[in-house]
Design goal:
The protein has seven helices and six strands, in the order βαβααββααβαβα. By secondary structure, it is of the alpha/beta class. The protein has a six-stranded parallel β-sheet with strand order 3-2-1-4-5-6, with helices on both faces. It binds flavin mononucleotide (FMN). The site of flavin mononucleotide (FMN) has 17 residues, from helix 2 and helix 4.
Length: 188
């Protein structure tokens, strides 16, 4: 069996730049991935960036909208390595935490949990309310990885792109995908 694809879910939180970086790296190394957009993500993309949908979708195995509930990735019988939601809004976090498969992104994430596959949630909110903290706790206890979009600074970032690379690199680390897009800490 070849490489199992990763599902990249993009929800309507700030920081779609992190998803853009991740997808570019996956494309560069020919790592297969599916893409799921929520409707809010498409709006935020327009408000916050000058990226085009095509840039995201060009190298995807398949591209789905949140309403595409009958797509392959809605079923546990469709084998994938896991899923990342990047960025993950507090709404999508809440849906997943409570098993409410209201749209394809929540459904695909629920599938990863039930199949005990990797689920990484790049949550982007600050400050955090108690419901968000409780939802993160529930999901951490369910086996998901909560990976806040909070880049470190020990790799001496000089550009925004360095910050995007840090978060995208941490996601790749979760899936065991080799990369050198951020500088790892070494004993000084
Ligand atoms: C420009 C913009 C930035 C937003 N940033 C965030 C954010 O960082 N985190 C968040 O949880 N919601 C954010 N929202 C709100 C979500 O888009 C909104 O809750 C939406 O319903 C999320 O839907 P989705 O999870 O289906 O994508 C933002 C909305 C807009 C318009």
């Amino acid at each position: 069996m070849g490489k199992l694809p990763i599902i990249v879910g993009i929800s309507g939180a700030s920081g779609i730049q992190y998803a853009h970086k991740l997808i570019n790296v996956l494309s560069d190394i020919s790592y297969p991935f599916y893409l799921i957009w929520t409707s809010a993500a498409k709006k935020v993309l327009k408000y916050e960036t000058s990226y085009s949908f095509k840039e995201f979708e060009a190298k995807a195995l398949d591209v789905f909208e949140e309403k595409d509930i009958a797509s392959s990735v809605a079923s546990g019988s469709h084998l994938v390595k896991g899923m990342v939601v990047i960025p993950c809004s507090s709404k999508t976090l809440g849906l997943i935490a409570h098993g409410i498969d209201l749209n394809l992104i929540a459904r695909a994430a629920s599938v990863q949990l039930k199949e005990k596959r990797k689920l990484v949630l790049v949550i982007r909110e600050t400050p955090l309310s108690l419901p968000i903290i409780e939802n993160m706790r529930t999901l951490a206890l369910s086996g998901a990885t909560i990976l806040p979009a909070s880049p470190g600074f020990y790799h001496e970032p000089r550009t925004l792109d360095d910050l995007y690379s840090f978060i995208a690199g941490k996601v790749l680390d979760q899936f065991g995908i080799e990369h050198s897009i951020y500088k790892r800490w070494k004993t000084p």
